[in-house]
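Researcher: Here's a chain I'd like modeled. Treat it as a single chain, no partners, no ligands.
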Amino acid sequence: MTVLPANVPSGGQPQTTPTGPTPFRFIETARAIEAEVGQVIIGQSEVVRGVLTCLLAGGHALLEGIPGLGKTLLVRTIGETLDLSFSRVQFTPDLMPADITGTSILRDTADGMRSLEFQPGPLFANLVLADEVNRATPKTQSALLEAMQERRVTAGRSTHTLPEPFFVLATQNPIEMEGTYPLPEAQLDRFLFKLTVPYPTEDDLLRIAQVTTGANMPHPMRVASGATLLELMRFAREVPAAESVMRFAVRIVRRTNPETPDAPAEVKRFARYGSSPRGVQSLVLGAKVRALLEGRYNVAFEDIRAVSMPALRHRVILSFEADAEGVTTDKLIHDVVTTTPEE
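Model: Modeled as a single isolated chain. Structure tokens:
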């Protein structure tokens, strides 16, 4: 097992790798981002770590919570700490797909002719905040599918490549609230993590009141560029994972499927569909980033367990019986993880 020190040493030269960044630089950059975000976002350290894990793994994140918990502020603050182009889309019931992806407009050319010219929409940014994504109709929500998966947008007969890196950080209110639309399962599957934003504690509420009602509001500094983020994303994929650890992740994903013979009894009873193969990819990628953030250059079983909830909770579809009895996906995933053997 390769263990990294908790902090970057002040003296000496860390060993470098042929691919560019070092494990120490990875940790240093990640902690710098967390520190800057922590000046603005009070509490919610697990949510901040989850969003950062998604970014370093090259995936998209979905944040769910009731209004007023700082979901939008969190995403905007992370955007301010990174030297990336940033755009925000406020999803509403009357939002159309072309409002997001862009559209072709008729322009006069220098020779007096007319031609169609593509006008890029807000998706053409490195970091896109899809605010209250479940307030738009499924037709508009589906406009994100190609962008999130292929990193490109098709308009008419032309395909336009999105800038790299490209991340979608979406927020949504719980789907049982009035005026919202459940996200299509195909779109949910494109998110690497689904993170639930909890209500702040009493001490956190006190600090929020003290900080946000004062004369000076904290502002984060930019600590990483897009090129640096791409290097760290590539480096995270090089973290080794033993076959036994990979098989552990595979077994967890298979046992979320009610048709798997050794699935837990509650999964067979309350789950309609289990996780797709993207669930395995999310587990492994998230575990690789977590291992680095925890100071290790190898994936352990504990890393798979730690990221299993955000990686799988939006990929398990419950039955009507589960809704009637108040069974949640988190409960089913917890049962799967705790009963899956390592060997």
